[in-house]
Predict the 3D structure of the following.
Amino acid sequence: MPMRLSCRGRAARCPASAACVALSVLTLAGCASTPAEPVPFKPVPAERIVRQGYTQPGPGLVAVDVRRERSRDVIVRFRDALVYIDGERVTDLMNGEHVVFYLPPGTHRIGVSTQFDPVIELNFIVTADPRYTNRASVTFNDDHRIGLQRVAQ
C-alpha cells in the first residue's frame, strides 16, 4: 500500500522548506552584485582591434583609457562589450580588459553595446589638461544592462 502524507505532515515541513529557498535566493542575489577581487587590467589583444588607427600614439593625440570593470556575475562575465569611437566599432572588451585610444583633443563619442543592448554613447571631452581624467569605465547594472561613465584617475 503506498504511503500517503497527511496535510499536517506537509505543513510542518513547509516553513522550513520556504526558509531554505528564501535563504538560497538571497544568497544568490547577493553574489550577483559582488565585484570581483581587484587585479590589474589586461590589454585587449591586438587581433581584436578591428579598426586600426585609434590605438596608435601620435603627436598631438591624448591617451583615453576605456576599462571593462571585472564582475563575478556569470550572466555578464563572458559577454563581450563592443566599443565604438565616433560611431565606428573599434574593438570589444572582455571582463577585466582595457584599451587605450589616442584621440585628438575635443569632443568624441565613446559608445558601448552588447548583442542584447543598444549602443550607449557618452560625449567625452578629450583634453590634455591634467585637471580632467581621460578614463571611462564600462560596467553592468543589476539588470545586466551595459553602462559607460567617465571616472577619476
Remarks:
- The mean pLDDT is 82.
- The first strand starts at residue 42 and ends at 43.
- The first helix runs from residue 7 to 32.
